[in-house]
Write a structure and sequence with these properties.
CATH superfamily: Class I glutamine amidotransferase (GATase) domain
Helix content: 25-40%
CATH class: Alpha Beta
Number of domains: 1
CATH topology: Rossmann fold
Structural class: alpha/beta
Number of helices: 8
Strand order of the largest sheet: 2-1-3-4-9-8-7-5-6
Largest sheet: 9 strands, mixed
Strand content: 25-35%
Length: 234
Amino acid sequence: MKPVIIFKHVAHEGPGFLGDFLTQQNIPWQVVNTFELETLPASIAGYSGVVLMGGPMSVNDDLPWINVVLDLIREAIKRDIPVLGHCLGGQLMSKALGGTITQNAVKEIGWGEVKVSDNPAAKQWFGEIEIFNAFHWHGETFSLPAGATHVLASQHCQNQAFSVGKHLGFQTHVEVTADMVKMWCDLGQDELQASASSPGVQQADVMQETLPLHCFFLNKVASQVYGQWVKGLV
């Protein structure tokens, strides 16, 4: 089987639970750092699936790798190779498909309830799950590109996920592990303090209360979603 390629945009935002899931399913995968421009593939044809992780930058930033990755996303979708985006990754997918990325009404950081949309596409991805606690860390949001179906929303961000056939883009993070949350809290101390007045922002101590339990239940949701996504691997 051809490997799944995972685009990583910053050192501390790796595949997390997704890597564990793929390994358990005996699905080969490899990580490519987009900030190492020379390592980006010229074509996506040699891969069974495409995954895009998160990062603190904006899709609207003038970074040398962004247009390259947007073209690879479009190629994957044209070849019917499934694409999966997390946070920044979902924004990259939206932009590649003609959507726009703008500031969200409020910054959203921490654990927060998300609701699964009432439509067939959402039911296909999430099964019997209707509401769950997801992990958020974003200040921007994507629009739904043409042809996309809305599948997830939260109180502070309407567009938390969309699907286009076998492709799925998240604004939220379903891939986090307890270690990732702790690391992000450490690295993001200044941002948390600066955003303390936002109604969508939790502080580090709140985020880390019953952290293993939060991650346990989120892993169950991720397993459901990832299990559907890997069915489309080519």
